[in-house]
Design a protein that fits this description.
By secondary structure, this protein is mainly alpha-helical. Helix content is about 80%, strand content about 0%. It has eleven helices and no strands. Helix 4 packs parallel to helix 11 (about 270-290), helix 9 packs antiparallel against helix 11 (about 270-290) and helix 10 (about 250-265) packs antiparallel against helix 11.
Amino acid sequence: MPLSAIILVLISTILHAGWNLLLRSQPTSYAFLRIVIVVSVIGLGPALIVEFFGVHFPALVWLYLVFTGIFQAYYYLGLTQGYQNGDFSVVYPVARAMPILLIAMLDVLLGQRPSLVGWLGMLLVSAGCVIIPLRSLREFNLAAYWNRTTIWILVTVLATVGYTSVDNAAADLISPGPLMAARYGVFEAAFSVVFYWGILKLMGQPTGAPTGWQGWKLPALGAVGVFGAYWLILWSYQLASHTSYVVALRQFSIVIGVTAGSFLFNEPARSLRITASVMIAAGVAGIALFG
């Protein structure tokens, strides 16, 4: 893996952890809505111009965009509600790692046996996810697992598996390259805005306020992190000889996020959760590289 790709992935991990920390610091349901609105407003014009006057997406891709928009909307909802109801140092690592563990377990059920390191990775992720909600290893409590936060984490995990599966199917139909993928990402954001707004309305959640630049400053910063992290990962995929290397290295964001979140938000069991986050990141890397 070339040094340039490593640098891009590491910057992306910082941006990914950063926009999640920013989202956690904004305890409102409309914060993520404004983030994707900014991405859509800035990118939709150029994306539509290229769509009409350049290379068109196949018709089936637009159906995929509808489905991925729905899954993304539930991802936004689950992540936002998870941060509102639970600790960042629990929600962020579990929501980030569990989709990979779930896919690996589905592969096992379908008869695709993992390697020894793959099994070890699954064990590390599972153990880390069991440990990280606790405040002490000596104080096991069922309430640490079965609560409102867990429900929203599960919503986030299932939505992540959903939009990832749809995006992978769409990727087989569009031309390779970061510009085409970026255009797909802009349309994905635009569709998710519509569905997320509708979900918030049905739930009776606020969709806007305050007005003026002050209400858009942090969402604009978050939009840079969301799209920037996505763009850099796409770019690194172009440079790396094996995508599994990129998937493995980007899990470093789990350690960054948990460490920063435990200090910024003064969350409990700092040492225990940082240790568990290292276990989760190492386990996901093992699954990606050798599973």
